[in-house]
Amino acid sequence: MVDPEFQVSGGAGGTGARYEDIGLLARHSDDLAGELGAISVQGHDMLADPDLVASALLNPDGFARIEAGLLRALDGPEGLTALSLGFEQRAIALRTVVASYRAVDEERARTMETLRWALGYGLGTGIKAAAAGPLMLLPFVPPLTAAGLLFGDDIDLEQLVTDHPGIIDTLVGMGPGLISSLPGAPMVGDVPGAADLLGEFYDDGTYSVTAPEMNVFGTNTDDSDVSMTKPPQGFGDLIDGLDYRNEAVNAGEPDQIDVRVITHPDGSRAYVVDLPGTKEMNMPWSADSPFLNDMGTNVHVLGGDTTSRQHAIAEALRMAGATADDPVMLVGHSQGGMVAAQAAQDTATGAFPYNVTHVVTAGSPIGNTDVPAGVQVLALENARDIVPHLDATDNPDRSNVTTVTFDDQNGTIGDNHGTRSAYLPAAQALDRSTDPSVQAYRDSAGAFLNGDAVESKVYELNRVH
After folding, report:
1. Are 332 and 360 in contact (CB under 8 A)?
2. Where is the signal peptide (predicted)?
3. Dist CA 223 CA 454 (whole Å)
4. Which end of the chain, N or C, is less packed with Cβ atoms under 10 Å?
């Protein structure tokens, strides 16, 4: 098999990191300007030193030469005062450059968001009020259905959207404007706002967590598969474990996650949590789902909510023995990656009370999630997978968010999104990557990739209404 060609953005080698480097250079320039300015002030004080002035009576020429030399050193063209002002001007220029570039990037994103919103609003105002109710759900129904409503039935919609996943960005991005145009509907400004509105139709409920020793069949369900009994050594092993759990969880069955407890020779522990994707594609008008890995969780997380699934994951970590200080890596596919990123965001407020240091996502729309700078994120995205486009935005180019895109057209939406068909082969190939952002992420994740032993525990999560 030929390794895929990776496109890497963000991370240690990304534009955001370069912006941060320029900002750091500006701060250093400020500091140096301040230090040189302080020395210049001290030098000017020396010009009026009483002892130096008194020496003029005994040696006028020497006094004049000293004064002239000090003035040149302090206020000459290359003196301390000029250098101080020069470094201060450089700091201002550097900050201006960074601010300008960031403003251009942000304006470009806002322009695209506004354009899509306007398209949606225009579409909504051109449709009869009788059709308004069903159309409120247009951006959130399965993408093929939405594309069929817009493009008709004379084309291969699956081929269309997998060849051009950007269509999904447009469809989802039109959603807020479309909703805003409907009679009696509130004004919705962005995709998270639209998802938050739709989330009112899904009861998130609360949760229950069943530990391995409490399995209803009276058996211990700790993982014994080879992919779960060896400490992970790289990206391939991480996604291999995720794929194992993802394949074991089926629609109509309770949500299950793995907690891999990694022990190091010194006795310290690190925790890798495997979070499968959506298994229950329930619509708002269906009965309340008992499964946490359902469409309702997708909608709530897309809206930026802290979900019952996230609380259940925190409880599973507690039951596995994790403390608030132990390093935690959250590895998620699809919805699992969304919940992982949201949990990492919530560490900043204490809503997820664990030390999440790393996140790995596979095929997850996480562009709107504000992950703290101290959490390293690796986002794997198949360029033919439509699911990462469901937030209608690109992942941010930041030093702590590395997005790795590869092109693997398997012919169907499901196969392009699958862990086994698309993301596991890509992760295995990524282990051989020499990209600086990928290498920096790998180096930072040593607590999870250099373990001496591993114990994998299975936890069953359920929704309680």
Report:
1. yes
2. none
3. 11
4. N
The 8-class DSSP code of residue 348 comes to T
Contact 322, 219 (CB under 8 A): no
Burial class (CB in 10 A: 0-12, 13-18, 19+), 273: buried
Q: To 10 degrees, what angle do helices 80-125 and 166-181 make? A: 70
pTM: 0.80
pLDDT digits (tens, 9 = 90+) for 351-383: 999 999 999 999 999 999 999 999 999 999 999
How many helices (H) and strands (E) are present in the chain, helices listed first? 18, 9
- Which burial class, exposed, middle or buried, applies to 126 when counting CB atoms under 10 A from its CB (0-12, 13-18, 19+)? exposed
Cα–Cα distance between 273 and 259 in angstroms, integer? 5
Strand locations in 304-430, DSSP E? 327-333, 355-362, 376-382, 401-406
- DSSP string for 182-219: STTPPP--SHHHHHHHHHTTS---EEEEE-GGG-TTSS
Q: How far apart are CA 89 and CA 380, in angstroms?
A: 41
The type of residue at 220 is N
- Contact predicate 345/369, CB 8 Å: yes
Please report the sign of the dihedral spanned by the C-alpha atoms of residue 383, residue 388, residue 394, residue 397. negative
DSSP bridge partners of 209: 461
